Amino acid sequence: MRFTTIALAFAASLLAAPLSAQTTTPPPYGAPITLEAAKKVVAAAESEAARNNWQVAIAVIDSGGHLVMMMKLDNTQLVSIRVAEAKAKSALGFRLPTKLLEDAVAAGGAGSRLLAVPDIAPFEGGFPIIEDGKIIGAIGVAGVLSSQDAQVAKAGLAALGGATR
Model pTM greater than 0.70? Predict the structure, then answer.
């Protein structure tokens, strides 16, 4: 799943108006997340999912969009693997939580055109991973309700002391 420059420019132009009031200038991309940091994120997210008995897939990608870690808990539906990675890539590509994409689609109008952009997952549960003011990667979680996916992802971010924007 690659984001092309044209697709990102198109999607960004669709979102510019509705999101401009909700966000500040997004942080720049930084060095890629380390495997050690990704392990901490996934372990914390897995712990949150297990505590709630939620079967989810957890994806962590680096700042270049490459998969660093993927975990699928037992009995998680298989499609959640692809959705978790798509949420992470959407959060990384737009440099914002995917809940804002979901809200743009729900608002209709130009935001609903996001559904026509390939490889976008406009569902809550994806977040950029920010360290020292730079995006080092992203996490995506899928398998339960989107709000629950987000809860699991936020637990993962908390392992690094990361903000969810």
Answer: yes
